[in-house]
Amino acid sequence: MRSYRPWFVAVILGLAEMQRLGYHPHLGIDTYFAERAKDRKRIVGLETIDEQVALFSGMSDTLQEGMLKDALAKLDELAALMAKAQSLWRTGDAKAIDELMVAPMRRDFPDVFQRLFVDRNRKMASAIEGYLKTPGEYFVVVGSGHLIGPEGILDLLQAKGYVLVQQ
């Protein structure tokens, strides 16, 4: 692990623990819908893998090390956190999901929050608005953390006059 950047170690450790808990990438909602649409629908990403990697690799070493320390300190809490997040997701409690999953980063790592959520949400909301202005039907899948909170995609679209309905 010594040869990897701290952000990458933090991500790998988190993903390994998630898999140990039974959360596998091939069972993700994005994978589910992409597989269903394969060969029937055109699939377009809102961002590239290179853009995602650049989000992390452009962070200072100090910030990356802080993220790694935080990830290590919270690994034992991940099972309870995910169980609670799943329960809130099932009930559609966006405010509680924001408080549980997003607010801690907003508070503890504001620079990371800016990069991972605020900047990306603005870009994704702009892309979605482009789809809304184009004839046709579109289906967009993003992580729930990008939809919620005052900097979330839904609030950004509402601020532009779109009426949103949660079902």
A few lines on this structure:
This protein has helices spanning 6-20, 29-37, 49-57, 61-74, 78-91, 94-108, 110-132, 144-147, 153-159.
Write the layout of secondary structure elements.
Elements: H1 6-20, H2 29-37, H3 49-57, H4 61-74, H5 78-91, H6 94-108, H7 110-132, H8 144-147, H9 153-159
Helix pairs in contact: 1-4, 5-6, 6-7, 7-9
Helix content: 55-70%
Overall spatial form: globular
Model regions low in confidence, pLDDT < 50 over at least 5 residues: none
Secondary structural class: mainly alpha
Radius of gyration: 17 Å
Question: Helix-strand pattern, N to C?
Answer: HHHHHHHHH
**Largest pleated sheet:** none
Oligomer class: single chain
- The proportion of strand residues reads under 5%
What is the CA-CA span between the terminal residues? 44 Å
How many domains in all? Answer: 1
Tally of helical segments = 9
Average residue-wise pLDDT: 91
What key phrases describe this protein's structure?
167 residues, mainly alpha, 66% helix, 0% strand
Descriptive overview:
By secondary structure, the protein is mainly α. The model has no long low-confidence stretch (mean pLDDT 91). It has one domain (6-159). The chain has helices at 6-20, 29-37, 49-57, 61-74, 78-91, 94-108, 110-132, 144-147, 153-159. Helix content is 66%, strand content 0%. Helix 5 crosses helix 6 (94-108).
